[in-house]
TrEMBL record:
Occurrences of domain Aspartate/ornithine carbamoyltransferase carbamoyl-P binding (ranges): 2-146
Pfam families: OTCace, OTCace_N
A GO-annotated cellular component: cytosol
Taxon lineage: Bacteria, Pseudomonadati, Pseudomonadota, Gammaproteobacteria, Nevskiales
Catalytic activity line of the entry: carbamoyl phosphate + L-aspartate = N-carbamoyl-L-aspartate + phosphate + H(+)
Name of the protein described by the UniProt record: Aspartate carbamoyltransferase
């Protein structure tokens, strides 16, 4: 693996290797052993042009725990605010002998642009580009599901909410399909389901409880208002009424169904606070697993480079 830009087209063997490689990092952290010398001498630059709490922090922790040097460019205070282009920013930071860039950007394709223009030997990790892809979120979601369900074959997974604007939905669909999940459903109002989504191997349901019937895992998504300029915008109250996961609705599903959300959550909209922090919720565990999975990806890409 040279760059990680998307989960689309990634073979099952590679996905499983990345999940397997994350397991000892997760176990070591659980046992209180967090530091590994693997990436001593490597430099990781976090370039976040869009807001982030979980992804930026867990990438920083992952690189630090692998003993890399880590730089977090303060984008708002950087020369991009003076008009410096993405390309010139990349070349400037490459001159400081960075080995890996973690990039989040509001434009779909930004990470591919970086990968096309990066110097040989410099790796690009996509931390979310527009509505296109968020591959490490999909990996940490798969890792979290596997830790609880131990397999993907035979699992029913529903992704609920704003699918059309969601890079997480797309990356999860590609990863879970490749890993062997065959009953993958997207659930939401028609304007929030993208045309052609069934071609990715999912079924579509507009009624929440029909879509959740018999599922093992629910992945909730928030309404991404920042990407809805000029688009259909259901009121938050309407969305909660029709698609919000409440305790009452959860009680009508399989007792062992797991609830996931990439965060940030909008309490009282797509999920009730009591469900978000209830016994079936893996939301906090997803965040924790993000560190181990991002360590795995960085180790896979950087450990064998000079
Ligand atoms: N899930 C996720 O990408 O969260 P952040 O926006 O906080 O990084």
């Amino acid at each position: 693996l040279k760059h990680l830009l998307t989960t689309e087209g990634l073979p099952r063997s590679l996905l499983e290797r990345l999940l397997d490689r994350a397991e000892p990092y997760a176990r070591a952290a659980e046992a209180g052993f967090k530091k590994d010398p693997l990436l001593v001498g490597k430099t990781v630059v976090n370039l976040f042009f869009e807001n982030s709490t979980r992804t930026r922090t867990t990438f920083e922790l992952a690189a630090t725990r692998l003993s890399a040097d880590v730089v977090n460019l303060q984008v708002a205070a950087s020369s991009t605010a003076k008009g410096e282009t993405l390309l010139d920013t990349l070349k400037t930071l490459e001159a400081m002998q960075a080995d890996l860039f973690v990039i989040r950007h509001e434009a779909s394709g930004a990470a591919h642009f970086f990968a096309e223009h990066a110097a040989p030997g410099v790796a690009i990790l996509n931390a979310g580009d527009g509505r296109h892809a968020h591959p490490t979120q999909a990996l940490l979601d798969a890792f979290t599901i596997r830790r609880h369900k131990h397999k993907f074959e035979g699992l029913s997974v529903a992704i609920v909410g704003d699918i059309v604007h969601s890079r997480v939905a797309r990356s999860n669909i590609h990863a879970l399909r490749s890993l062997g999940c065959t009953d993958l459903r997207v659930v939401g109002p028609p304007p929030l389901i993208p045309a052609g989504i069934v071609e990715l191997g999912v079924s579509v349901e507009h009624d929440l409880m029909r879509g959740l019937d018999g599922v093992d895992v629910i992945i909730l998504l928030r309404l991404q208002k920042e990407r809805m300029v000029g688009a259909f915008l259901p009121s938050l109250g309407e969305f909660h009424r029709d698609y919000g996961l409440t305790r009452e609705r959860l009680a009508r599903l399989k007792p062992e169904v797991l609830v996931m959300h990439p965060g940030p959550i909008n309490r009282g909209v797509e999920i009730e606070g009591e469900v978000a922090y209830g016994p079936q919720s893996l939301i906090i565990e997803q965040v924790r697993n993000g560190v181990a999975v991002r360590m795995s990806v960085m180790a896979e890409i950087l450990a064998n480079t000079q």
